[in-house]
Design brief:
- The structure is a single chain.
- The chain is built from 21 helices and 18 strands.
- It is an alpha/beta fold.
- β17 (581-593) and β18 form a beta hairpin.
- α2 crosses α14 and α3 (72-81) crosses α9.
- Mean pLDDT is 84; it is low at 71-84 and 637-644.
Length: 644
């Protein structure tokens, strides 16, 4: 009853916001546009209205998703637990087991320039997926002999082609032409699956209409914002909003977007839409659109069962976002794709169009950034009404809007810095967006840019991002001083108008101050990222043997709880039993953390791939079987609530 009541309140709240938003935009369009001054002022008046309209459409999209998803707790927990893969599944009254439903699966690992040491973990994890009817293929568009040797040492198949036509999509299509499984799994080179990946997802294909199952992209390293702001412990990864709120909500509307990796696809349906589209640099988005246009189902499985690496530098983060923006705008504006939109259900069409419109919001964000500046410096006013009227509207609408967002998204902590994400991304993607919108497709070439995941790469070209933001920050501050001077010492038509613009400009200054910190690249200190664990660890030396709880692990060391009775052994070396084999570790330091005595250690011989030997391969396989056995610890919400 409580959940139903909350959903009703949420629906009424969102409906009120939508009504107010429509009234506000309509009022702005009918009453407030400024036709009385220069042509530029008229243009700017329309531009600001357009920016507000785009924002309303995107926010309506988000509100619908939240209404369907219910509370954030429901999104995280209930959708996970209802997909519990240990439950019995029936079809036509018959129990489905691996004896009567075990479709063949080809696992494709897409790679072009990733480090073989990184790739080794992914290949090993794919080989160790617990499923009886699978084959693993390494699709190497870099055509590297060492990757071929690596694949062979792990017992995986190796596929290359002579050109890179079609980029990632072309690479996958080439492999499709050489294989014949029922299902195909796609992993990027840096996404490592748990051993349960197929057991948790394959039963979705009992339904013959299911074409694709998308699982979350979950990351073990901080993104550029978490790292450069030094808030990784307090803020969620930037993509958690999409994969932990938006995708589960879209699943309820039958409108799940394809994310390109950690996906399982039915080959028969993939063939029916012409395989992966090679006409877009965001082939995953276009593939999902094609599947939905054919009436196939795209399912979202809301539990992290693969773990990857986020873009390691701000530069790579921006390159990735530029590619996503260009690709999705290209899909929306390409007349060849309009036939797919026409076949969608109305709600699916809305989500696809508003989702593509989201990638145009950087234009809106830049308009909102510059509007107070133009007023404070040049008295360019996009509205012709008394300012207390628009302030009253905005105060009512935006207060309710922010209350709605924070009430329902507070556990996704990066909502607190959402405007910082939007502003920084907008400044450095707006050029790519305008290029895609204004230059016809036939006159421009959109190159596929692979996101580098070299964690120890030194930041380069920091000034190319710092200087533009520094200039914008200086302009905002100068406009603030100009407005304060005019307010105190000049005869002005409306002091309330100056106060209102000073308010919005001060918010932009605050956001820009955080933005400057984001682009101040911090070096990455870790070669191997920690993976959260929830396992028992056996430690021993020549005199003692004890069990303890393992908190996290990397290929360089372990972090575990030391039992109270063994305090004082911090300087001692131990042997850790991992998958029945002994690994020597050296304690680095121990300290009390949240009432527990926690020790950090390092392997005396890091689990790295310095040489391609069978001994090294066997050690990596042992490590992978131990660390990626089950994914429960990767999702704190699932971990803390699955017993309820």
């Amino acid at each position: 009853m409580g959940k139903q009541f909350y959903s009703l309140v949420l629906f009424l709240f969102a409906s009120l916001l939508l009504l107010l938003g429509v009234i506000y935009v309509s009022w702005r369009a009918v009453v407030t546009l400024n036709f009385l001054e220069s042509p530029f002022t008229t243009f700017w008046s329309y531009a600001l209205l357009g920016a507000e309209l785009i924002t309303l459409v995107v926010f309506t999209n988000f509100s619908l998703i939240l209404i369907k998803s219910g509370t954030i707790q429901d999104v995280f927990i209930d959708n996970v637990l209802q997909n519990d893969y240990t439950k019995d599944i029936y079809k036509d009254g018959n129990l489905i087991t691996f004896k009567n439903f075990c479709p063949s699966v080809d696992i494709f690992i897409c790679t072009i320039n990733e480090d073989p040491d990184m790739l080794a973990t992914t290949i090993s994890a794919c080989q160790n997926i617990d499923y009886p009817n699978k084959k693993v293929y390494v699709l190497d568009d870099g055509r590297r002999p060492q990757v071929k040797e690596l694949a062979e040492l792990f017992g995986a198949n190796y596929i290359i082609r002579q050109t890179n036509k079609g980029f990632k999509a072309g690479n996958i299509n080439n492999a499709l032409s050489l294989t014949d499984s029922d299902l195909v799994v796609i992993f990027d080179a840096d996404h490592i699956p748990s051993s349960t990946f197929l057991k948790e997802t394959v039963y979705n294909f009992v339904n013959d209409n299911v074409a694709l199952v998308q699982t979350p992209q979950h990351f073990c390293n901080p993104d550029a914002f978490q790292k450069n702001l030094s808030v990784g412990k307090f803020l969620a990864n930037e993509q958690d909003m999409f994969y932990r709120i938006i995708e589960p909500g879209l699943n309820e509307f039958g409108s799940v977007f394809c994310g390109g990796t950690n996906i399982i696809i039915r080959r028969k349906h993939l063939n029916s839409v012409g395989n992966f589209p090679e006409t877009s640099i965001t082939e995953d988005s276009l593939l999902g659109l094609k599947f939905h246009s054919m009436g196939y189902e795209v399912i979202y499985y809301n539990r992290p069962i693969a773990i990857g690496l986020a873009a390691s530098t701000f530069e790579e983060y921006i390159k990735q976002r530029c590619r996503w923006a260009k690709g999705n705008i290209q899909i929306m504006t390409d007349p060849d794709n309009w036939k797919y939109y026409r076949k969608l259900k109305p709600i699916q069409a809305f989500f696809y169009l508003s989702g593509a419109m989201y990638f145009i919001t950087p234009i809106s964000r830049m308009i909102f950034l510059l509007a107070p500046v133009l007023f404070l410096f040049f008295d360019i006013s996009p509205v012709v009404i008394l300012f207390y009227q628009i302030i009253a509207f905005q105060l009512c609408y935006f207060s309710l809007k922010f209350a709605f967002i924070f009430t329902n998204c507070i556990k996704i902590k990066n909502i607190i810095l959402a405007d910082v994400y939007d502003l920084v991304t907008s400044v450095f993607t707006i050029g790519s967006i305008l290029h895609t919108l204004l230059i016809p497709k036939r006159f421009c070439l959109h190159n596929f840019c692979v996101t580098k995941k070299d964690l120890l790469a030194l930041p380069e070209g920091n000034s190319r991002y710092m200087i533009p933001l520094g200039i914008l920050f200086a302009v905002l501050v100068a406009a603030q001083f100009q407005g304060i001077y005019d307010l105190l010492y000049s005869e002005v038509y409306s002091k309330l108008a100056i106060v209102a613009n000073l308010f919005w400009n001060s918010i932009n200054i605050l956001v820009m101050a955080f933005a400057l910190q984001v682009v101040d690249e911090k070096p990455e200190k870790r070669l191997y990222q920690r993976v959260k664990m929830d396992e028992t660890l056996i430690l021993r030396d020549e005199n003692i043997r004890f069990e303890t709880h393992l908190e996290d692990v990397s290929r360089s060391g372990l972090k575990f709880f030391m039992p109270d009775e063994f305090k004082g052994n911090e300087k001692k070396d131990f042997v850790a039993d991992i998958e029945g084999e002994a690994d020597e570790i050296e304690l680095l330091d121990c300290a009390d953390e949240k009432g527990k005595y926690v020790c950090k250690s390092k392997f005396k011989q890091p689990i790295s791939l310095l040489r391609f030997t069978k001994l090294q391969i066997a050690r990596i396989n042992r490590f992978v079987r131990f660390v990626y056995k089950k994914p429960d610890a990767w999702d704190e919400i699932f971990k803390n609530n699955k017993k309820r």
